[in-house]
Specification:
45% helix, five-stranded parallel β-sheet, 8% strand
Length: 442
């Protein structure tokens, strides 16, 4: 099996096609080719470490993997029935149309993994036209080194220092998720030489929260991630510090807080973590999306729920990114982009949505807040025949098509000229992230 090598040529041949989207929305061919040459910065993904034969599997790609919750439906475009996945497999593995079934994909992928070894993750980025990928992982490892990969660790465990048995009992989903957070908190404590949380909240903040964030920054983190919408609503109300301290002191030595008590504590701790992250120059990523899970609280994960945080004057030194664009409440997302320190990305939307639907979202955002929109893939491992590299490819090709469609429509309607269209394309795919994260890339 042969795998093409030239990076830019691959981007041009794979990421442009097809130059024309649905017949009613043609994409300017020159603009499409220009978009294909832009080496993107991926704001959000879950790349996997290359694993040698016989070595333990990679379990650090997510703090809350969803394989332990009850089965739930997923959007159709994420299933292997959608043609985009077979096209991705053919483009990445060099398969012919007749060889792109499950068995063919698995065999071709295994061969490619053996051939590339630790170079496989960088190989994936080259094929998807991505220069830098932000890796949401518990820890990095061989094959995921800077400068191509930048670390974004998970800090939800810092919000839940007390017994979470009552919280975990809320739904069949949360029963398996909260123990994962507790295990990760124990790992963070062990990194600090601790076996238990301190007896007072101020001691916990000074002895656990602050040094954990400092260690993450020292180890290369450029942002921190919250998946807290899987655990509780995003309505982080204005906190009462005295109540939070009392709740912590009452249960630090044992016992489980009630739901209202734990909410008061996490309302307070979220602001503490976000404020310290801003002081350290770490951007705060928040999962804002309608799914996944059979008991996921969609209403609690809408962008508008975050407005009290975004309006908190003590957090204005902290930059926030609403990961996944807040889909489907993209109007609420747009309203939040009016805050001076709030951004969003396209991750997961460019896997779930077709290019024409995503183009409508992009056009609305670029018409009003062009400096606030970031490219992202949310590339994830979907199984042996739906590897994370396919997610990166599907998202990259969809996002580039959608961006071309949106900008062509703006050109057609006289809203922008070609120079502005090219600038906007660079901003979304690269420059907005470069500025936000102070990345040392051209």
């Amino acid at each position: 099996m042969r795998h093409p090598e030239p990076r830019l040529a691959v981007a041009l041949t794979l990421l442009v096609a097809p130059v024309v989207a649905p017949a009613q929305t043609p994409v300017d061919s020159g603009l499409a080719h220009y978009i294909a040459t832009i080496r993107a910065i991926d704001n959000h993904a879950h790349p996997m470490r290359p694993i040698s034969p016989g070595a333990p599997v990679d379990t650090e790609f997510d703090a809350l993997p969803l394989d332990g919750i009850p089965p739930f439906p997923i959007p159709w475009r994420l299933t292997l029935e959608a043609p985009v996945w077979a096209r991705a497999a053919r483009a990445l593995y060099g398969l012919r149309a007749g060889d792109s079934g499950a068995a063919g994909r698995i065999a071709a992928r295994a061969s490619l993994l053996r051939e590339q070894g630790e170079h496989f993750p960088a190989w994936v980025l080259d094929r998807a036209g991505i220069e830098v990928m932000f890796a949401n992982r518990i820890a990095m490892g061989p094959g995921l080194e800077p400068p191509r990969f930048r670390w974004v660790p998970f800090d939800d465990p810092l919000l839940f220092p007390l017994d979470t048995r009552v919280e975990a009992s809320r739904t069949p989903d949360t029963r398996s998720l909260y123990p994962k957070e507790a295990a990760l908190l124990r790992r963070y404590l062990a990194d600090l030489g601790l076996t238990a949380v301190p007896p007072a909240l101020d001691q916990y903040i000074a002895g656990v929260v602050v040094p954990t964030l400092q260690h993450q920054r020292e180890r290369g983190a450029i942002a921190i991630k919250f998946e807290v919408a899987y655990l509780r609503s995003l309505d982080f109300a204005d906190p009462d510090s005295s109540v939070a301290r009392a709740v912590y002191a009452r249960y630090a030595a044992g016992g489980a807080p009630t739901g209202p008590e734990y909410k008061a504590l996490t309302d307070y701790l979220f602001r503490v973590v976000a404020r310290e992250a801003g002081r350290l120059g770490l951007v705060v990523h928040v999962h804002v999306l309608e799914t996944f899970g059979g008991f996921y609280a969609t209403e609690g994960a809408t962008p508008g729920r975050l407005e009290p945080l975004f309006n908190d004057s003590t957090l204005r030194r902290t930059s926030f990114v609403m990961i996944h664009g807040g889909w489907p409440a993209v109007g609420e997302t747009e309203a939040m982009l009016g805050k001076p320190n709030v951004y969003t990305d396209l991750s997961m939307m460019d896997q779930m949505l077709g290019a024409s639907e995503l183009a409508l979202v992009i056009r609305g955002w670029l018409s009003r807040w062009p400096g606030k929109v970031l490219f992202g893939t949310d590339a994830f491992e979907g199984g042996p025949d739906q590897g994370w590299e396919q997610g990166a490819y599907v998202a990259a090709t969809t996002a580039r098509r959608a961006l071309g469609m949106a900008l062509t429509a703006m050109l057609r309607d006289g809203e922008i000229d070609m120079a502005r269209a090219r600038k906007l394309a660079r901003m979304v795919l690269r420059d907005n992230a470069r500025v936000l994260y102070h990345l040392d890339v051209p």
